[in-house]
From TrEMBL:
<dbReference type="GO" id="GO:0032993">
    <property type="term" value="C:protein-DNA complex"/>
</dbReference>
<keyword id="KW-0234">DNA repair</keyword>
<dbReference type="GO" id="GO:0006307">
    <property type="term" value="P:DNA alkylation repair"/>
</dbReference>
<dbReference type="GO" id="GO:0008725">
    <property type="term" value="F:DNA-3-methyladenine glycosylase activity"/>
</dbReference>
<dbReference type="GO" id="GO:0032131">
    <property type="term" value="F:alkylated DNA binding"/>
</dbReference>
<dbReference type="GO" id="GO:0006285">
    <property type="term" value="P:base-excision repair, AP site formation"/>
</dbReference>
<keyword id="KW-0227">DNA damage</keyword>
<protein>
    <recommendedName>
        <fullName>DNA-3-methyladenine glycosylase II</fullName>
        <ecNumber>3.2.2.21</ecNumber>
    </recommendedName>
</protein>
<dbReference type="InterPro" id="IPR003265">
    <property type="entry name" value="HhH-GPD_domain"/>
</dbReference>
<dbReference type="InterPro" id="IPR051912">
    <property type="entry name" value="Alkylbase_DNA_Glycosylase/TA"/>
</dbReference>
<dbReference type="GO" id="GO:0005737">
    <property type="term" value="C:cytoplasm"/>
</dbReference>
<feature type="domain" description="HhH-GPD">
    <location>
        <begin position="158"/>
        <end position="317"/>
    </location>
</feature>
<dbReference type="InterPro" id="IPR011257">
    <property type="entry name" value="DNA_glycosylase"/>
</dbReference>
<feature type="region of interest" description="Disordered">
    <location>
        <begin position="1"/>
        <end position="31"/>
    </location>
</feature>
<dbReference type="GO" id="GO:0043916">
    <property type="term" value="F:DNA-7-methylguanine glycosylase activity"/>
</dbReference>
């Protein structure tokens, strides 16, 4: 039985999996698990301590959160916000038929808002200038190595008791800022993380409490606060804003694939970042929403005929 629980009816249609999916860092993310009954488990750190949260959608218009651990009460109290309660799409104008159709077909796509800045920042820094697979491998290695077992039952245990799913492995809570700051250089090397990215994380960890203040700032002020950190630029800020702030306009300028994806999805050609920013002006205020809707609808982008970002094994250096 959960230590704290809450069931509610969201004020907008909400699809649980679509909404919370962006916070997962690859299929092997130790802090995130989806089990056979459709529930999604997440390990996080609140101001009160670590928590395991089980999110479920027992009916189309009903959401539920169960939580365990020192941060359980806080995690349940903020669950509706995490699952997009504050995301208001009423002012969104799709403008063209392709986006209108994607919007119509995905009415429950809300924008997640965890409120956890440093939690979103670390894996985003790991994703800087490397292929996604490398970043996910590094995240998995480091969380298993320096994180801790999440409180409460293992994912799937409750469902298994009712015959709905097989028990899963226990979740891991990512390290605290203090623990990230103490990761030895050789462990970063074992994880395949180069000195520039490891220095960026270690430095950010020293100012984690100040970075958390960005969650209550305007998007402009939040971006300015984050970019005070060496190694944190506009792409990193946008990726954090998408997850921690639920910013519907956070366009990841500088992404290796995004400009060409949008260029081909909407205009049938390659685009530079500057051209993408100019072309997306009609959707100002909802540019992240456009990207999410196109992806959810399976809209294809640029054909895979050009070079991909190379695999760079920093452990060999």
């Amino acid at each position: 039985m959960a230590e704290h629980s809450r069931t509610w009816t969201p004020r907008h249609p909400t699809d649980l999996a679509q909404t919370i999916g962006p916070i997962r860092r690859g299929p092997g993310d130790p802090t995130f698990r989806r089990v056979a009954d459709g529930s999604i488990w997440r390990a996080t750190r609140t101001a009160s301590g670590p928590a395991t949260v089980r999110y479920a959608q027992p009916a189309g218009d009903v959401l539920r959160a169960d939580a365990w651990g020192p941060g359980a009460a806080e995690a349940v109290a903020e669950a509706a916000v995490v699952l997009g309660e504050g995301d208001d799409p009423s002012g969104f104008d799709p403008r063209i038929a392709l986006i209108d159709e994607a919007h119509r077909r995905n009415p429950g796509l809300r924008l997640v808002r965890t409120g956890r800045v440093f939690e979103a920042l670390v894996p985003t820094i790991l994703e800087q200038k490397v292929i996604t697979l490398q970043a996910h491998d590094a995240w998995r290695f480091l969380v298993h190595r320096f994180g801790e077992d999440a409180p409460g039952p293992a994912p799937g245990a409750l469902a298994a008791a009712g015959g709905l799913a097989a028990p899963g492995r226990r979740l891991k809570v990512a390290p605290t800022a203090e623990q990230w700051a103490r990761v030895p250089s050789w462990e970063w090397h074992r994880a395949g993380v180069d000195p520039q990215r490891s220095r960026t994380i270690v430095n950010a960890a020293r100012y984690a409490s100040r970075l958390e203040e960005a969650s209550s700032m305007s998007p402009t002020d939040a971006a300015a606060r984050l970019m005070l950190m060496p190694g944190v630029g506009v792409w990193t800020v946008a990726e954090v804003a998408q997850r921690a702030f639920g910013d519907p306009d956070a366009l990841a300028v500088g992404d290796y694939h995004l400009s060409n994806y949008l260029g081909h999805a909407l205009w049938g050609r390659d685009m530079t970042d500057d051209e993408m920013v100019e072309a997306m002006i009609p959707w100002a205020g909802h540019r992240q929403r456009v990207v999410r809707l196109l992806a959810a609808a399976g809209v294809a982008g640029r054909p895979r005929r050009g070079p991909r970002m190379p695999f760079i094994d920093h452990r060999a250096r």
